[in-house]
Amino acid sequence: MPQTAAPRPRVLSGIQPDFSLHLGNYLGALRNWARDQDRFENFFCIVDLHALTQHPDPERLRSLTLELAAMYMACGLDPNRCEIFVQSHVPAHTQLCWILETLTPMGWLERMTQFKARSQAQGSERINTGVFAYPVLQAADILLYDADVVPVGEDQRQHIELCRDLANRLNSQRGDVLKVPAALISQVGARVMGLDTPDEKMSKSLAVDRPGHAVLLLDPPDVVRRKVARATTDTEPAVHKPLGAGVANLLEIYAALHEISVDAALEAFEGKSYSILKGAVADAIVDALRPIQARYADLRGDEEGLRRVLAESAARVHLVADATLQRVQKAVGLR
Ligand code: TYM
Fold first, then answer.
1. For residue 153, which atom of ligand 1 is closest to its CA?
2. How far is the CA of 241 from the centre of ligand 1 (A)?
3. Which of 7, 191, 244, 249 gives the lowest tally of CB atoms within 10 Å of its CB?
4. Which CATH number fits domain 10-187+302-332: 3.40.50.620, 3.40.50.300, 3.30.70.100, 3.10.290.10?
5. pTM for the predicted model, two decimal places
6. How far is CA 321 from CA 41, 193, 295, in A?
7. What pLDDT band is residue 3 in, cutting at 50, 70 and 90?
8. Measured in angstroms, how far is the CA atom of residue 214 from the centroid of ligand 1?
9. For 132-137, what is the mean pLDDT?
């Protein structure tokens, strides 16, 4: 009898179209999504509703959404093997979000590190409730598609935990309604630190006013080399243990790009000067970005093609999302 192939586990992840993407987004997320696309059934979302919490200029949000679609594909996501869609094109995200909000204690959201950092910086009068409820919308993004795994960087671990808690809460109240997903976080490259301040995570928003903070995926080679050459190290002349945070970060970037362990990278550079390490890291970044930048230019130029991919994908994923939403609506008594 012919054997039918076992269904592949389903993956869902997303990125906000808020600012330009950087090396951390690539190593912590995009690169892994592209590399693993044959292992999974793939759902990749452009989370524009999340970006709204930062009040972007409308024209800029429209443009960043298309840029991100082009970047997904430039990094290797193949629209024939992956769903690539925009969150706001699928109304079920906000519909499930509301139901999940009614199950979410405020205390869970108050404990979220990202929320705490933003509310401390801005104060509760100025911060919008979208920032507070953000992890619930993220949970809806994941749970709607019955995702098995969610490949993300280390900074998203807490949000995935909250998503799991919400799924378990509904399941314990109303029977097995939702699939409980697991975070998928790489050993290497899941927390790339700022080049200028290696005790701070590399972040899209910090890179806006601090060009030395991050290598952006569209930076030309000379800019990459300059940024890496200026990266903060420490006063030691060469690579030795104990490693300073900046040196450890450079080794981690090198290891992630060459797909080796951090120990192997340390072995390769032990005793060598920082300028040798920085040269090798810059080379590795330039080599990785070159094909991405070449593909990006073509893809971004074809707006009609990008819109077509997004529309066709939304039409397909909408069916998956609606089926889950209806299951949940039934379980809670809305149908
Ligand atoms: P966002 O847009 O901030 O980041 C996108 C992805 O990049 C990873 N990342 C990093 N990885 C390594 N080092 C870094 N310095 C670094 N900075 C960012 C993030 O972990 C993420 O994987 N809340 C999410 C978006 C989201 C989402 C979802 C993700 C909304 N719904 C559903 C997964 C599933 C966010 O703001 O990512």
1. 20
2. 31
3. 7
4. 3.40.50.620
5. 0.97
6. 15, 35, 31
7. low
8. 15
9. 97
